[in-house]
């Protein structure tokens, strides 16, 4: 009896951790690396990144001189400026330049429009770019910028690829993917432009007075996400989709708004929140 129970438990865990994700993935997505099959490779990648930036990397760098990486960062930031500018325009097309209605639920998986199907490769590519963002923290570790590796930073860079993975894998046609891509790409275009310019050295710092406004537009983006999420809850998902994921994501914009607001107040206001 115990052997049968163990076998049943193992089968259930295998289904939850692997087979469910394979079965629920659209056939048009299955050929793509990382998101086509089970989540094992993606989860392993994210856990390795987390271990490195939180524990392994800082320990390895403890007795080492920090890397400068000035030219590397210039190239990296330039690439991300280009990528995010491209996706700001691409997401605008997905949203029909603002004319796509927000007040709809998701269509059934076997009822995707030709337009939605054609957009899948670009949305998967956008998900891949969120993995490129993980190098931000790796560079902080190598440069021994431990003050930058805060809970907010690590959580933000960890959870965004996770939700991107789930969304692109299970319901890539949701308008939330398109809204997040559009708004976040604009924010990141501004943010990485700042990082690119700041890498040119001290002489340019007087011209970067607009740094604090980056956090302000980040706060604005979470307000927009919150509205989009609440609309999704109100109008509901199609029954073909896991409603638990909707409720799992609903609190994220509000939590991010709170954490970024705390960061902004502590960074720029004289009367800091205690």
TrEMBL record:
The chain crosses the membrane at residues 41-61, 73-92, 124-142, 149-168, 174-197, 217-237, 243-264. Its EC number is 2.3.1.199. It comes from the Eukaryota. It is a multi-pass membrane protein. One of its GO terms (molecular function) is fatty acid elongase activity. It is found in: Membrane. Its main location: membrane. One of its GO terms (cellular component) is endoplasmic reticulum membrane. One of its GO terms (biological process) is sphingolipid biosynthetic process. Keywords: Fatty acid biosynthesis, Fatty acid metabolism, Lipid biosynthesis, Lipid metabolism, Membrane, Transferase, Transmembrane, Transmembrane helix. It catalyses: a very-long-chain acyl-CoA + malonyl-CoA + H(+) = a very-long-chain 3-oxoacyl-CoA + CO2 + CoA. InterPro entries: ELO_CS, ELO_fam. PROSITE patterns: ELO. It is an enzyme of class 2 (transferase). Belongs to the ELO family. This is Elongation of very long chain fatty acids protein. It comes from Medioppia subpectinata.
């Amino acid at each position: 009896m115990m052997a049968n129970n163990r076998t049943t438990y193992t089968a259930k865990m295998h289904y939850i951790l692997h087979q469910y994700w394979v079965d629920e993935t659209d056939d048009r997505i299955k050929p793509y690396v990382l998101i086509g099959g089970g989540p094992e490779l993606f989860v392993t990648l994210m856990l390795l990144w987390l271990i490195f930036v939180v524990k392994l990397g800082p320990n390895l760098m403890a007795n080492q001189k920090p890397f400068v990486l000035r030219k590397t960062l210039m190239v990296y930031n330039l690439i991300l400026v280009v990528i995010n500018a491209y996706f700001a325009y691409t997401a605008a097309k997905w949203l029909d330049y603002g004319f796509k209605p927000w007040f709809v639920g998701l269509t059934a998986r076997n009822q995707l429009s030709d337009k939605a199907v054609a957009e899948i490769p670009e949305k998967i590519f956008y998900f891949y770019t969120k993995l490129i963002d993980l190098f931000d923290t790796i560079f902080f570790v190598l440069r021994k910028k431990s003050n930058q590796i805060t809970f907010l930073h690590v959580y933000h860079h960890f959870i965004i690829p996770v939700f991107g993975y789930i969304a692109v894998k299970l319901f890539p046609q949701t308008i939330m993917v398109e809204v997040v891509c559009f708004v976040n790409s604009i924010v990141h275009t501004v943010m990485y432009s700042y990082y690119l310019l700041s890498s040119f050295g001290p002489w340019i710092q007087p011209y970067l007075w607009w740094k604090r406004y980056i956090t302000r537009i980040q706060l604005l983006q979470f307000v927009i996400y919150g509205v989009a999420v609440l609309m999704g809850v109100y109008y509901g998902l199609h029954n073909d989709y896991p409603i638990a994921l909707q409720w799992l994501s609903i609190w994220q914009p509000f939590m991010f708004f709170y954490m970024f607001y705390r960061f902004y107040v502590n960074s720029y206001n004289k009367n800091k929140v205690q």
